[in-house]
From TrEMBL:
Coiled-coil segments on the chain, per record: none
Single annotated GO MF: D-glucose:sodium symporter activity
Membrane topology type: Multi-pass membrane protein
Encoding gene per record: SLC5A9
Domain of life: Eukaryota
Protein name per UniProt: Solute carrier family 5 member 9
Compositional bias annotation for Polar residues: 603-612
A cellular component term, taken from the record's GO annotations: plasma membrane
Region (Disordered): 592-620
Matches recorded under Pfam families: SSF
Sequence ranges of Basic and acidic residues compositional bias: 592-602
Organism: Laticauda laticaudata (Blue-ringed sea krait)
Protein family (similarity comment): Belongs to the sodium:solute symporter (SSF) (TC 2.A.21) family.
């Protein structure tokens, strides 16, 4: 998810009223749109209702045909998915409503460079299909923490990663998507924020609980089509309005609000707005950070995160997993054109609202004193889309919200049931695990609703910064560990664990400093310590990644290695090894207690492990 300098907070009813009043600059740079009511017409309402019915129908249909009687069937769609729904699900699982609003807002504020966050995903998806998934499939795991347990033994790494993932899901991904989507719907339809939230969560949870991953992936495929088509429609309308790319370049560079703050340059569009590679020192997204730091975060997101990897693990064979990665990579090229550029167009057309810098003006426009760039996408929809198509765009935002939530709900229930509940109830049956997974979805829904007031009262401009901080401070150690676990056989459990702990401490210290010394508003002097104002968060990700690798390797070299026979089918170099894998838990017990104790590593029986030598070249 891209970084944004601003977030919305405040009275949404007042925001809805203000947004309907298009300001008229003294020297207009654009044709003033006709004042219009944001009330939806009957065609808009019909489109939204049809969308809900259609999504529920697809969810119910896929639930009925899903294999839900086993854990592999419920959590991994019976490992029967083909490449095209996997690729579509990879796209929609990552593109939530928060991305539509946040990515467009960052594009409005800073230009094209934020699109690099999306383009960087293309190579990471290829790495997922060609490097990571073959190892995951050969090891026969359902979750990423489960892979870590098989690879290193013990439980502390598995439990740490599971709990960390659930915390990230609840307080960043779920809360951001819910708030962004519900706020957008409230502005557009006039629904109460909590009513919007509850309805969306209930509909989303119904087919997630009922059908497992099969229902999630098929509804994701449907909603990916809706998202892409709807966003493309708005893109063409926006470009036609602004005068295509040449008109955007001209109008964006002159998109200055009427009211500015004296002796500052905050109101001026960035001179490098149309450049992807920006200055390594003064750039808001420096090019070394974009190429290398973002790659660390991308590998975490696309190759080790349960929400994403679970889609690829549902493939009927490795060829379909690779095909899904290729399709997902192509789809990730599109957000630059149908989200980032429309955000820039919104600022070019409505500089007094989207580009406001005066705290008093901004608070009147959107309730946030630091700026209103996050209204760029909703503003564009409400001003430019005709009746009927406006309803389609509401359906697009709903699709983004529900696709992201269904993916997170399903993956969170998988993590809890397999990695946490199985540790508590070691003899739990498959039926019990599936019931626990479904109940946990309901708990997530309740926590998410309770989290909404906290998001509403959060400091303006901190929501997206908070999300990126969490990613930059917690993801690099996980990326480092997964890369070493797959490619370096010498790495052992003590090295892995203490590397994670070192990375957690260093990242936590930087995170605390970020919240103690907040970034200054426009016109204020930056009095933060040099380590904060001079070290971009993407640079910090590179540093933390390198330090974690050093700690993991050092501790591993100082402690006994894992026996070679215990690594069968668990690394890149041993993924074809036919030797039956030894349970690392058994190895630990034998070394410490001299008493063999067989414990299941996975709820998938050995017969369900996929033989890569036979299936790697399966037809697509």
């Amino acid at each position: 998810m891209p970084k944004s300098s601003f977030s919305y907070r405040g009275n949404s009813q007042h925001f809805s009223t203000i947004m309907s009043q298009t300001s008229a600059p003294t020297q207009p740079l654009y044709d003033k749109p006709e004042e219009k009511s944001f009330a939806f017409g009957i065609p808009d309402i019909v489109v939204v209702i049809i969308y809900f019915i259609f999504v529920l129908a697809v969810g119910i249909w896929s639930s009925l045909r899903a294999s839900r009687g086993t854990v592999g069937g419920y959590f991994l769609a019976g490992r029967s998915m083909t490449w095209w729904p996997i690729g579509a699900s990879l796209m929609s699982s990552n593109v939530g409503s928060g991305l539509f609003i946040g990515l467009a807002g960052t594009g409005a504020a800073g230009g094209l460079a934020v699109g690099g966050f999306e383009w960087n995903a293309t190579w990471a998806l290829i790495a997922l299909g060609w490097i990571f998934v073959p190892v995951y499939i050969s090891s026969g795991v359902i979750t990423m923490p489960e892979y870590m347990k098989k690879r290193f033994g013990g439980q502390r790494i598995q439990i740490y990663l599971s709990v960390l993932s659930l915390i990230l899901y609840i307080f960043t991904k779920i809360s951001t998507d819910i708030f962004s989507g519900a706020l957008f719907i409230q502005i557009s339809l006039g629904w109460n924020l909590y009513l919007s939230t509850v309805i969306l969560l209930i509909v989303t949870a119904i087919y997630t609980i009922a059908g497992g991953l099969t229902a999630v992936i098929y509804t994701d495929a449907l909603q990916t089509v809706i998202m892409v088509l709807g966003a493309l429609v708005l893109m063409f309308i926006s470009f036609e309005k602004v005068g295509w790319y040449e008109g955007l370049q001209e109008k964006y560079s002159r998109a200055i609000p009427n009211v500015t703050i004296p002796n500052t340059t905050c109101h001026l569009p960035r001179q490098d707005a149309f450049h992807m590679m920006r200055d390594p020192i003064t750039g808001d997204i420096p090019w070394p950070g974009l190429l290398f730091g973002l790659s660390v975060l991308a590998l975490w997101c696309w190759c080790t995160d349960q929400v994403i990897v679970q889609r690829s693990l549902s493939a009927k064979n490795l060829s379909h997993a690779k095909g899904g990665s290729v399709l997902g990579g192509y789809l990730k090229i599109l957000p630059m054109f149908f989200i980032v550029m429309p955000g820039m167009i919104s600022r070019a057309l409505f500089p007094d609202e989207v580009g406001c810098v005066d705290p008093a003006i901004c608070e009147k426009v959107c309730g946030a004193k630091v700026g209103c760039s996050n209204i760029a996408y909703p503003k564009l929809i409400m001003e430019l889309m005709p009746v009927g198509l406006r309803g389609l765009m509401i359906a697009v935002i709903m699709a983004a919200l529900m696709s992201s939530l269904t993916s997170i709900f399903n993956s969170s229930s998988t993590l809890f049931a397999i990695d946490i509940w199985q540790r508590i109830r070691k003899k739990a049956t498959e039926q019990e695990l599936m019931i626990v997974g479904r109940v946990f979805v309901l708990i997530l829904v309740a926590i998410s609703i309770l989290w909404i007031p906290i998001i509403q009262t959060a400091n303006s401009g901190q929501l997206f910064d908070y999300i990126q901080s969490i990613t930059s401070y917690l993801a690099p150690p996980i990326t480092a560990l997964f890369i070493l676990a797959i490619f370096c056989r010498r790495i052992n459990e003590p090295g892995a664990f203490w590397g994670l702990m070192f990375g957690l401490v260093v990242g936590f210290i930087r995170m605390v400093m970020e919240f103690i010394y907040t970034a200054p508003s426009c016109g204020e002097e930056d009095q933060r310590p040099s380590v904060l104002k001079d070290v971009h968060y993407l640079y910090f990700a590179i540093i933390l990644f390198g330090l974690t690798i050093a700690v993991i390797v050092f501790v591993s070299l100082c402690t006994p290695p894992i026996p070679e026979e215990n690594l069968a089918r668990l690394t890149w170099w041993t993924r074809y090894n036919k030797t039956p894998e030894k349970d690392m838990e058994d190895c630990i017990h034998q070394n410490t207690e001299h008493t063999p104790q067989k414990e299941k590593d996975s709820v998938i029986s050995s017969s369900e492990n996929i033989d890569l030598t036979n299936k790697e070249h399966g037809g697509m």
